[in-house]
Amino acid sequence: MGMSVTISVATEQDAEQIFRLQYLCFQSEAALYGNYRIDPLVQTLDSVRQEVAADCVFVARLGEEVVGSVRGKVTEDGAAAIGKLCVHPRLQGHGIGARLLRAAETALESERGAKRFRLFTGHRSEGNLRLYRRVGYQTVGRAKGDDGVEMIILEKQVGAFVQTA
User: For 61, phi and psi rounded to 5 degrees?
Assistant: First the structure.
């Protein structure tokens, strides 16, 4: 009998596993853009620890192993910025990313008063774009990331239609 993946709030003890998972998961994004200086790959462990302490951070666990994570925080304009959604490569395509996203959205709305959600993804990241559009996000603009990658900005209003994964 296999174990189920569970979604829960991250604890400070999860920071190192999140850091390592993020580094693993974003290798394919870096390869897609030929840029290994993208933010998730250059973020420090201390910075991840700070985000876990201050932001809304969820993890997906398979037993004791962190196999997915997502972070969010409410910005000055009242939108919830959601970022660094990642799922271990061996478990991608099973709805874990959508479950993490839904957990973050729910908490950001109910606990932090978010009125809409915003996220960014690289313009070549078709898998990410498919997921975000499937769960109700719409493109609202483009921006150049600090790392030089062209990013697509997507948003959705709280309560917007969400298709289950």
Answer: -120, 140
Question: For 112-137, what is each residue's pLDDT tens digit?
Answer: 989 999 999 999 999 999 999 999 99
Which own/partner pairs from 24-29 qualify as long-range (CB within 8 Å, at least 24 positions apart)?
A: 24/88, 24/89, 25/86, 25/87, 25/88, 25/89, 26/86, 28/89, 29/122, 29/125
Place of tokens 């990013």: 151
Give yes or no for a contact between 122 and 150, defined as CB atoms under 8 angstroms apart.
yes
Report helix angle 126-134 to 96-112, nearest 10: 50
DSSP output for 87-141: E-GGGTTSSHHHHHHHHHHHHHHHHH--SEEEEEEETT-HHHHHHHHHTT-EEEE
User: What pTM was estimated for this model as a whole?
Assistant: 0.91
**Quick one: which H or E segment has residue 71?**
strand 65-74
